[in-house]
Amino acid sequence: MTAPTTDGSAGPLPRPTRFSDVKGWFFTADQLLFDWFLAHQQDRSVPGDLLELGAYLGKSAIFMGARLRAGERFTVCDLFDSPAGDAPNSREMQKSYATLTRRAFEANYLAFHDELPAIVQGPSSAVREHVADGTVRFAHIDASHLYEHVHGDILAARELLTGSGVVVLDDYRAEHCPGVAAATWQAVATEGLRPLCITGTKFYGTWGDPEPYRTALLGWLTGRAGIWHEVQSVHG
Fold first, then answer.
1. Contact assessment for residue 112 and residue 63, using Cβ atoms and an 8 Å cutoff
2. Which residues contact 12 (CB under 8 A, 6 or more apart)?
3. For an engineered disulfide with 149, which of 64, 144, 191, 230 has Cβ 3.0 to 4.6 Å away?
């Protein structure tokens, strides 16, 4: 469901004063790449909205929101305080995200932006009820780490993205998330996902033509000091 803003009757939460104050796993390399991809799309007037599945406390959402253009929609989908709906997912939530609350996300986001994104409070499988197919230019998936859920999220992203849209998959190589790795590389091997680049924590890909992104990104990396990179061929 698209839930209303959380009741603030419990009192306001402290708001961060700096981006670095927001808790979360969003490292410098990925901040640079998020900024590059979103700026690249903006400079070329690539149409479409923004989407995040799995928000935690809002660190990457805050970053994405800064690149939201007039007339665009930013949708964030997360369980927040809601039950997961299945036992394995519930166990994962309790283990990794026991302190996650919607109020904390909203307080963090509003410390940097005037308005909240459109929030879908529920499982990521519900996102297609709220976002139209073919309308998203940039999607960040960092929700469940369980294979069946990640596979479903990737298939949903394929339908939601525009022809030149970019999907970012978190934890594609983390040792505690083999399901994410399996779903990611399955999508590359059998479902048409084309790799654009990878970092230590995130995979960037598209179902469109990868070459314009690859060429422009390589040019940017080559001209930027202090960022190591190399080129490898993986499944075309």
1. no
2. 107
3. 144
Output 9 or 19, whichever has higher pLDDT. Answer: 19
CB 170 within 8 A of CB 56: no
Q: What is the pTM of this model?
A: 0.88
DSSP E strands, 21-95: 49-53, 74-78
How far is residue 198's CA from residue 184's CA, in Å, rounded to a whole number? 12
Instruction: For residue 135, give both structure tokens.
Output: 């309308």
CATH T-level fold of 25-222: Rossmann fold (3.40.50)
pLDDT over threshold 50, residue 98? no
Q: What is the dihedral of CA 14, 27, 77, 136, to 10 degrees?
A: 130
Q: Which residues of 187-216 are buried (b: 16+ CB within 10 A; e: fewer)?
A: bbeeeebbbbbbbebbbbbbbbebeebbee
* Mean pLDDT value across the chain: 90
* Joined tokens for residue 197: 């680049």
